[in-house]
Structures are given as C-alpha cells and as structure tokens.
C-alpha cells in the first residue's frame, strides 16, 4: 500500500492546506518566515489534514472549513514537534535538520509559540465553538502528557502508562481531527462518535507501529538508531510484551533501576526483543485496532471517500517508516 | 492613588477569576499543578482581568463571561512571562523565584505551553467566535513582537521601533482585553472602538511607565538593577529622548556598536539620563496617553464602573512599581 492510494482523491485539497499554512507567516518577521518555510518544507506526509479532509468529505463538510481545520491541526502538530525537538535536543527529524539544530533555544521556543498562536487563530476561523473547545482541550492533553512523561521515572514497565502516554502523544490529535471534521459537517452525533473512535484507533495504531519500527525498522528510513526508545529509558509495547513474558530477565529487571543507560546491555536486550515474536505481537495489536476502526467505517454507505479512508487506515499498519 | 481604589468594586469578581485560573490545573500532573500554584500565588495585581471586569460591567456584559475572559487573558499573560523568563534566564520576577529558577528548561517550556492551551480553552468557553479570533491574533502579535525584538540588533535607537515593540509586548493584550469585554456585552461598535482605544492607550502608558521606572524607580520595589534595560541593549523612551537631544554624546554613539555592553559607560549614561528631564518627559507622554484614554471614557454616562475605570487609568501613571 503506497501513500499515493489514499492521497489521490485529495491531492488538490492538500495543496490548499499547504497554502493556508504558509499564509500564516505572511505578517511575521522575515527570519520567522524563513523558519516556518523550513519547517513546512521538511514536513511529512500531512497525514492529519488528510484524515480531516477525507472524514469531512465523507459527511459533506464544506471544503473551506476542512482546509482551515487541516491547517490548524498540522500547525498544532508542528508546534509540538518544534518544542519536543528542543526538549530532546534532537538535531534531525525526518532526515532534515530540526529548527534547534540551526536556531538558538530562545528563537525555537518562540517559533513554537507562534505556531500555537496561528493554529489557535485558524481553529477560531472554522467558526465553530465546540471545535475550538475541543482544540484547546486536546492541546492540554498533549502537553500534560509530555509533562507526565517527563516526570515519570524512565525504565518504567507499565502497559497502562504506555497506553495513556501514546494517547496523549499521538492518538488524541487524530481523534480530535476526525471528530472535528464531522463537527463542521451536517452529520449528527452517531457519525461524530463513530469517527471519533475511528481517529482514536488510527492514532493508537500509528504510535504502536512507530514503536515497533523503532525495533524492526530499516534504520536509514526510520532515521534514528535502532531501539532508540529503550536507550532513552522509554519502554514501549514490544519491550513491555517481552518483559511480561520474561519477568526475570536480568536486563528487564535492571530497567526501572536505570539499567536502560547501560548501552551494551540494551543492545543485547534489543536483539533479544527483535529475535522474539513480540514486535510482531505488538504489530498485531495495531492491526486489531485498525480492524476496529474499519468496522466504524462500515456503518456508512460505500463511496470514494470511504474507500480512501479504508486505504488510509490500512496504510497505518503497512507503512515501513 | 492606591491599587485599592480601583479594585474595591470588583474584589469578589477577581476572586472568581483566581478560582477559575486555579481550576485549569485540576486534571494536570501533580508536579504541573504545583508549578501552576506557584505561578498563580506569585502573580501580580491581576490588572488585565480588572480591566476586563470593569469595562464589561460598564456595558452590562454577563459576569460569567467576564470571569472566563479575565482568566483566559491572565493565563495567556502568565504563559508569555514563563517563556520570557526562560529565554532571558531570569531567576526572579516580582521578588519571587521564576519557574526556571526551580525547574529545568524542558519543564518550563511545557508549563508555558500548558498555560497557552488552558488560555485558549478558556477563550473558547466565552462562546464568542470573534473573541476567539482576536485572542489568536493577539497571541501572534505578542510572539512575533518577541521574535522581532530578538532579531533586532541591540543598542538600536529608534522611536518607531520602540512603539511597535511596546505595542506587541504590552499594549496589544490590554487592547484586546478591553475590546473583548465589550464584545461579550450588548454594546455596539462605537463602545467597542472607544474601549479598544482606551485599552490601547492604557497599555502603551503602562509600558512607558515601566520603562521610566527602570531609570527612576526605587530599586528594591522595582526588583531589578537600575537601568537594566540599557545594560541589556534595550533603548527605551527616556534614553531615546536623551539620544535625540544629544546625538553626539559618545555613549549614545557607542550604543548601536555594542557600547551597551560596557558596564561603566552605561552606568554613566544612566546617571546622565536620570539627571536630565527626559524621564519626566517620557512620563508626560504616558500621562498624555492616559488623558486620551479618559476622553474615551467620557463618551459614556457616569457610573460606579466608569469611576473605577478612571481610577484604574490614573493608577497606571501614578504607580511606583
């Protein structure tokens, strides 16, 4: 499944989202404009605006509102990435230098703030108050999640904590996007709830697949060293499954006591997890979530948009990067 | 003029704003709650919510909306202070340790983000779309102003640049608060425009007085070393007036070329400015702005709220800290 399959029906609409995002920097200081240009050029597959455009089109939402929503969601996402990369000291994202690799931290903090401001402004331009409320709430969930992760001891092996973390980090914004796209359409509560769950399941699956690819992915296309999460004390689903099956493994036992900082031991543990079936098991969990998302879709009449959403959902587990 | 004069009519309402702000941390991580508690406890005179409450009451806006607006504005203001203090490496604000004096930069970045999120959520809860739009726009102006200041060479002596900077930094939020308070009232465009200018003039005066107090203030109550702006290469109104009158003063000539970094020369220049009448001249400019604000007030019938707003406006130039 290539990215093209789900993008084809909305290639033109995604261009409008890009234009809308770029227009946000118009009145800004030239250096800030340059920074935003850099961020937007290096910026991913626009999977969140795609989700919003497809869900909204399925329910007859006006294109203008979906473009505004898509730009708001993607700028919000970009803002959180800018601050995340600063906090993590990351120098590369998707193979391109991060903002903080080129700019001093103060300018990076403020650029993130500017993106938050423009995202909030765009959200307001959808002219839909419950959507604005949802937007503010989702941003709180994301930031609170990041802070909670920061205050949680590294090396923690806890599945419940894991699900909460990936919800805050990733699924909350997918959930919001799908729900908001229905909000600006004529469809009612039933569609909204179905699409909320659709977005939620997609988001959870997306992050689980990310975490699996950290173990199994092609290192060059993932763009990070293998097992980088574990090296940073972040115990994700494949490692949690492995820990549940091997509770007395000395490397596992060492994790909550700072053992994740021992590079040699972690390389061993990462190889053990790779050799085990637990990465595949985690992938199956992601697939099960996508299946559940698809049953939500089936509640609605078949059409081109539904097909595209089905392809989008399947891409979430088929992707290699 | 004591702060009490203008606060008396709304002592109870300000308590509601405080409660509303504190409630924003309820679902947050305990450490984040503690940080917010610290920020709210050490937090100033609530002059922005006071402005919103008084203006809104003058035009019969519902209290609930004014409390929500006040909490949104004050949290937005607090968020910008948190990121500012981080960027400046400030360890004290209003005599109490800043967040970044106690927390690591990553937690400080995220706490600011959380405050932005809650401010946006509160703004959405006013149930008023043009207000939401104005809120997003104002946040963009503030952040763009900070970035512009960051990219502007220090030591720049330019009055136009100064006015633009203090508008973005301070006046834009006062302007927005007064305008938004009318928006949620039954009053029309005329009241909105009058109060927009009222808030604008108050905000410009507020910052000019701040900048004058940096030269003339009682060092212990201002809480910063005398002339700290100039020591940081920030040329404010008293120094600009002085420079316009003494264009060949060697210390003035040195400023755009980094002369502001020479501590001894700056102490001399600060003393020259203090001995000159230019701090008083800047204060007169602030007073003229307050007079203009008062003429806006006179367009409306006398009442307790109008009296309180008059007292508030006068306090802006009479304050010593």
Task: Please name the fourth-level CATH homologous superfamily of chain A.
Answer: Farnesyl Diphosphate Synthase
Please, how many domains of chain A?
A: 1
Shape of chain A: globular
CATH fold name of chain A: Farnesyl Diphosphate Synthase
End-to-end distance of chain A: 13 Å
> What's the count of strands of chain A?
2
Oligomer: homodimer
Structural class of chain A: mainly alpha
Provide the residue-averaged pLDDT of chain A: 91
What is the highest CATH level, the class of chain A? Mainly Alpha
Main beta sheet of chain A: strand number and arrangement? 2 strands, antiparallel
Share of β-strand residues of chain A: under 5%
Q: Could you give the order of strands across the largest sheet of chain A?
A: 1-2
Query: Segments of chain A where pLDDT lies below 50 for 5+ residues?
Result: none
State the order of secondary-structure elements of chain A, H for helix, E for strand: HHHHHEEHHHHHHHHHHHH
Largest interface: pair, residues per side:
A-B, 44 and 44 residues
How many helix segments of chain A?
17
Q: In CATH terms, what is the architecture of chain A?
A: Orthogonal Bundle
Q: Roughly how many Å is the radius of gyration of chain A?
A: 20 Å
